[in-house]
Amino acid sequence: MTTLFEKIIAGEIPSQKLFENDRIIAIKDINPAAPVHILIIPKKVIPNIQSLAEDDLPLVAEIVKVAQQLALDVGIQDNYRLVTNCGVDAGQTIFHLHFHLVGGRKLHGLG
Ligand code: AMP
Fold this sequence. Notes:
Blueprint: H1 4-9, E1 17-20, E2 24-28, E3 36-42, H2 57-74, E4 80-83, E5 99-103
Antiparallel strand pairs: 1-2, 2-3, 3-5, 4-5
Bound molecules: adenosine monophosphate.
The site of adenosine monophosphate has 13 residues, from loops.
């Protein structure tokens, strides 16, 4: 089944894009949990981090680089959280791998 993020990547659903290259996009989360809440999403269809293949590991490294740059761009480089939810009980609602870059306020427990 096509996920919402595939539709966003294809431009079929609008988003507030902060970064894009051939492999990755970063968009503002529609329901931000903090003043800064950015989703960093590989364009490749990968359901979640548990299904990531060894060949895809460089993509995760690139996502981390993108997160570092975005954190600098928005001024949260000293205090932020970079998380990915894997599975329904962990809070995953969209089964296309993505990382939440969250900051801009004091963050508490992971819930
Ligand atoms: P997760 O719960 O980890 O799967 O994260 C999915 C995230 O996607 C949630 O934080 C939602 O607020 C966010 N989200 C859902 N729909 C959209 C949308 N159309 N544009 C941007 N973010 C969205």
